[in-house]
Automatic annotation (TrEMBL):
InterPro entries: GlpE_sulfurtransferase, Rhodanese-like_dom, Rhodanese-like_dom_sf. The lineage of its organism: Bacteria, Pseudomonadati, Spirochaetota, Spirochaetia, Brachyspirales. Residues 42-120 form the Rhodanese domain. This is Rhodanese-like domain-containing protein. It comes from the Bacteria.
Amino acid sequence: MKNINKFFILSIFIISTLLFTSCSNRGYSNINLKKAMKTINNSTNLIMLDVRTAEEYSAGNIPNSINIDVLSPDFKSKIDLLDKNKEYLVYCRSGNRSAIASSIMATNGFVKIYNLNNVNYSDFENAILTNR
């Protein structure tokens, strides 16, 4: 009975460790507004990727950003046309869709992905406009 309990506990530990490791190594970095602004100011190879809908994008957007709706059926085929070796700052309205997009990009070979996490789009837009 004791051997079964030890085996069970050891199995749970191994599975938990594997799950934690795979979840924490998602292939992209979550960044806050301060880190995003620093990245924008310091990078020469950065593309800002807006993954909101076309309607949201046309209502207001960051200059020189690219819009590819993460919820559209052709999202993957569109990102496959992008240079996977460039840096991407991925954002949406609140950080949820950008996390999905960042994960898809990471599993499709993109090297440097920064997900603007827990930042309201209007705060990001204001920071960009006042930084110019």
